[in-house]
Amino acid sequence: MARNAATGHGKAVENALTLSDTDQAILAELTSDPFASNASVAKALGLATSLVSSRLRILQRDRVSQVLAVIDLDRINQSFCFVQIQIKGRSVTEVAEEMAAQRLVLMVSELADGAWDLLALVRFGDIHSLNEVICRDLATIEGVRTWKIDTVVDVPVFRAEYISYSPHYTPLSFEDNVGYLKLDIPEGMCDEIDLQIIAHLQENAHQSINDISRKLDMKPSTARYRINNLKSSEIIRFIRVIDQSAVGIDTFTFVEINVELSQTNSVIKALRDQQWLPQLFRCVGSVDLVGIMVTNGTDEVLRLKREILSEIDGVEAVKISRLHKTHKNDLRWAQRST
Length: 338
Hints:
Helix content is about 35%, strand content about 30%. By secondary structure, the chain is α+β, with helices and mostly antiparallel strands. The protein has a domain at about 20-60: Arc Repressor Mutant, subunit A (Orthogonal Bundle), CATH 1.10.10. The chain has an eight-stranded antiparallel barrel with strand order 3-5-4-11-8-10-9-6, surrounded by four helices. The longest helix is centred in the N-terminal third of the chain and has 13 residues, at about 50-60. The radius of gyration is 20 Å and the shape is globular.
């Protein structure tokens, strides 16, 4: 499985690239349309095309912004849940690495605060596959003591540009990915050529139609038709992610929110446009809402908890746990906000 290099959060960002207002505006345009031409971005922002081109060359050289080809989990009938895990009698890092090797585990991060040691995001197709990954794959890992599970039933907020992305991210190899895709995508939804196209795009979404057509020994028009068909059928989509350290983000925090059930929708409405909360999930289990907060430092996390989250009408309790180190983040998949 593809995995991030282990990264620490909550530490001072050294030598981070300072993005100008112009850079931020360019990235915002490209986030809404990852393959917009430089000329169209320049026109939308009222800038010279040469300026947009030069800034993008610098950003791409430093890998500040990258395009990823992702499979939509909902489109292939996949659900997911958050699993918080306590470890006993074994190194947390060892357990995290073993857990990261599981195919249906999308993300594994160490938690720095609270009673739980690890946070995992697990995908599943039905209750049988959930039982398989939880009770067979995770429960049998030495050192796993106990857990609590919250299943996602809705995704009110998902801004893909702020997923936990590292410029050192290494995609899964083409050969391995094709093998996994055969297991993951429902039969009849894609043929072998489609799977190979998806694998090539997930290996490098910046490559051209001509590059893909040469690799698959087909006409560029055929490759383009197939890619457009995969996009129109919503099997794949393209997202643009940003190296968060480049925009001053050095702290990721997992937040759990319990609310008065009658006010759940109003709480979601109050949180929907908060830039520091790019991911918000409605769950069933021990908690009503969970999210990922992105900030510059832990002081800002505490301020947001006390001054904003806890003051929203209908919020009964807020718990926060800092994500300390990410052992895996499978960027071949993404959710879509409702």
